[in-house]
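Entry for the shared binder. Reason: the reviewer on the internal report wants the predicted structure included alongside the sequence.
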Amino acid sequence: MNIALIFTLSRVVIAPFFALLFILGYRRGSPLLIWAAIGCAIMIELSDMFDGMIARSRGEVTDFGKVCDPVADSVSRQTVFISFMVAGIIPLWLYLVFFYRDAFMQLMRIVCASSGIVLAARQSGKLKAIMQAIATFIVLLIVLAKVHHVSWIPQSVAGMHTGFWVVLATALYTAASVIDYIIPNRAALVRMLKRKQVSVGT
């Protein structure tokens, strides 16, 4: 256990508190709870920003940390979008875009690891994380405006919650970003599939 890993694991600990505060705040129309949820979201993003920097600066980069970081990212961000879904801001199918993308990426990491390849982070993945963070805070600000009775911010566009359109744009890029991981690792995927076919045949 090191400081960088504590920062990483803190996202998993903070995420359920975000969900509880946001869902209760949204349903009760409580500005205090929404502000508290925003505070949790800020801590999650700061953790994601600093854990890698701390690990590299202190020479504490570990194999466990490399595995734990994307898992903590997935858990924390999916918790945010689950909260939006439970609140009725986004539908189930839109949340599933994030869920299945992360599940596929976990499968990719397992397949590449079985071939001795470490699935490194790519620019598309980093941009995806930034877009998801921005979408999260935009939705939170829209909700905050609602509980503070700010009338000039629309609560719906074309019959859908305004936050839906924000998350939709992010979901489209999130799904497309998978391609950037498949192309450079397609050889490992092909080898894995061939290996499975041979084992089944024998």
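Summary line for the report: The first helix runs from residue 3 to 28.
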